[in-house]
Amino acid sequence: MKNASVRNIPMMLSVLALAIGIAAAAVEQTWKAATKLTGVTFTGDTLHIAVEGQKPRYKTFALNDPAKIVVELYDTWLPQGLSAQTADQDTANAAGIDKIRLAQYATTPEHVARVVIDLAASRKFSVSDKASSIDIKIAGARRSDRSDDSATTLHLRAEEKKLADTGKIAHIVDILGNLPASPIDITFQDTEIKDALRILVAKYENLTGKRINLVFAPDAMGLVNLNLQSVPFKQAFQAVLSMSKLIATQTGDNMVKIMGQASYLADQQAAVTYTRISH
Predict the structure, then answer these.
(1) 103: β partners
(2) pLDDT tens digits, residue range 81-121?
């Protein structure tokens, strides 16, 4: 009998583990608030926040330093392990989105869930809601598979207009919108961002036979630690910029300016001001 009991121990442990798993799942399925946040996705130009249960009370607001859009959902709980999904990372980049974060901001006196959209620069947005979702539409986002930053077009057009007015040039080739997809290997270990980008530009010139001149804003700084194998050049370029929270914009026919967020905002405002004056 004793040997039989010993032989049954593994089976008993398996049954116990199954029971614990079922109990844990039951606890997770127990609703902790009137509304349950079930999914957050970004597609095209819109962030979709899906919910179940009661239509949530919510508040949205924007912060400028650093730039972000915040959505607070009241009497709403966030299931453990839920994370935001981006259908197209290039589209998210074009919309100026660095990251989408979810958090259970509070549990007392009521559950408050937060969705935070970290932006490369401040953007206008609009909100619409239905019984089962809240949609945040980001102004200026483009439904495109192009990977260049959305500010590039604005800077490019302003610079193109200025050069065209002087008769120096009629058209500027969009460098950032046409970065090569050829795979490269690259390794950076505590490398200054300026040196890392110069190395990438050298690779670009070898791949395309075209020259790029880099201009660095004072806030373009930081160290890069990265090891990429057989990654498309344009993705490697974006990864280096993203890790240092930098933005690239084209300011001439073969000139690219690398900026931190503060410099980018100042340049963007200058470009908008010039466009308005020129009209």
Answers:
(1) 114
(2) 776 665 455 556 666 788 888 888 888 788 888 898 888 88
Contacts of 79 (CB under 8 A, 6+ apart): 28, 36, 37, 38
Q: 219: which 2 tokens?
A: 């806030």
Judged on CB neighbours under 10 Å (0-12, 13-18, 19+), 121 is: buried
For strand 255-259 and strand 247-250, is the pairing parallel, antiparallel, or unpaired? antiparallel
Q: What confidence tens digit (pLDDT) does each residue in 213-243 have?
A: 999 999 998 898 988 888 899 888 988 888 8
Instruction: Find, among 176, 177, 96, 99, the residue nearest to 139 by Cα.
Output: 96
pTM, rounded to two decimals: 0.42
Taking the C-alpha atoms of residue 64 and residue 257, their distance in angstroms, rounded to an integer, is: 22
Could you tell me the two tokens for 39?
Answer: 């999914």
Angstrom distance (rounded) from CA 73 to CA 38: 12
How crowded is residue 239: how many other Cβ atoms within 10 Å of its Cβ? 15
